Amino acid sequence: MIIALVIFLVIAFMLFFGAFIIVRQGHCALVTRLGSYHTTLKPGLNIIIPFIDTVDRIIDLREQVLPLASQSVITKDNVNIQVDAVVYYQIVNPFSAVYEINNLIFAIEQLSLTSLRNIIGEMVLDDTLTSRDMINTKLQQIIDIAASKWGIKTNRIELKDINPPADIQRAMNVQMEAERNKRAAILNAEGEREAAILRADGEKQATIKQAEAQAQKLKLEVDAQASTSRNLIENLKEAGATKEVLQLIYMETLQKLADGKANKIFIPTESMTALGGLAAAGELFNQQATQAKNN
Asked: Considering the entire predicted model, what is its pTM?
């Protein structure tokens, strides 16, 4: 009787605690009932029927990282390069990831490698080296379409390294050095041109400033001489100089102008009123000319 009671208690204990399943956060559990898929358990405490329900698989729903080993890929221009990449994927449908594909990791790896070969095989080496983002995007699209029935989603794919052969790398280094020298020569030429332009502008501005200064100086001299002439006329008037004296001074000035030897001749406007008319001025001019010849 005691043995039977112990057996009963053990069975009851197993049934009681076997009915409780705890699933960790970020995971899920696939439960089969009598060998057939029954339900998917979410994180937390779950209850199943012991001996009838069985936890078939625990699935990690977090993002997974799958590194792709370095592979030899031939470009469109027949250059053999070594390429390796990393695939970031996540299971979004646990049922499909377990029951729709036999080996999910191997399938993703092989699909990624074959797709990568196809994409790079349609590109020349220079485009391959400068179009990583385009290759990543196109590869992700291909894998998403092909692996959608497996219940996974590729979040991103990154090319780690693209390694051309050693001779190609040496040629590329020589080309890059030539490009750097070319850019340096262009920059030096542009700098010399800018410097020449700046020097020419500076000389131009200096010439303009000198001309303006000379013009200003000449203007001041003219103003000073004109002021002197006006003062002379005023002094002669105050001294009681007659009209004929003023006309004589004016005609002497005209004679100097006619000789063309004077550099600057200033004719005060005040003396115009002292002439009394063109006829008188002409007569006095003739008299002065006659006297000059006789002398």
From this structure: 0.54
SS3 assignment for the chain: CHHHHHHHHHHHHHHHHHCEEEECCCEEEEEEECCEEEEEECCEEEECCCCCEEEEEEEECCCEEEEEEEEEEECCCCCEEEEEEEEEEEECCHHHHHHCCCCHHHHHHHHHHHHHHHHHHCCCHHHHHHCHHHHHHHHHHHHHHHCHHHCEEEEEEEEEEEECCHHHHHHHHHHHHHHHHHHHHHHHHHHHHHHHHHHHHHHHHHHHHHHHHHHHHHHHHHHHHHHHHHHHHHHHHHCCCCHHHHHHHHHHHHHHHHHCCCCCCCCCCHHHHHHCCHHHHHHHHHHHHHHHHHC
Q: Hey, how many other C-beta atoms are within 10 angstroms of the C-beta on 190?
A: 10
Q: What is the pLDDT of residues 235-256, one digit of tens each?
A: 656 665 556 655 666 566 555 5
Residue ranges per structural domain of the chain: 2-60, 64-164, 175-239, 241-295
Residues of the chain short of pLDDT 50, as ranges, are 257, 260-286, 289, 292
Q: Which two tokens stand for residue 223?
A: 């103003």
Instruction: Check if the beta carbon of residue 120 is closer than 8 Å to that of residue 68.
Output: no
Whether domain 64-164 has CATH 3.30.479.30: the reply is yes
The whole-angstrom separation of Cα 144 and Cα 24 is: 28
Q: At what angle do helices 243-259 and 166-238 cross, to 10 degrees?
A: 150
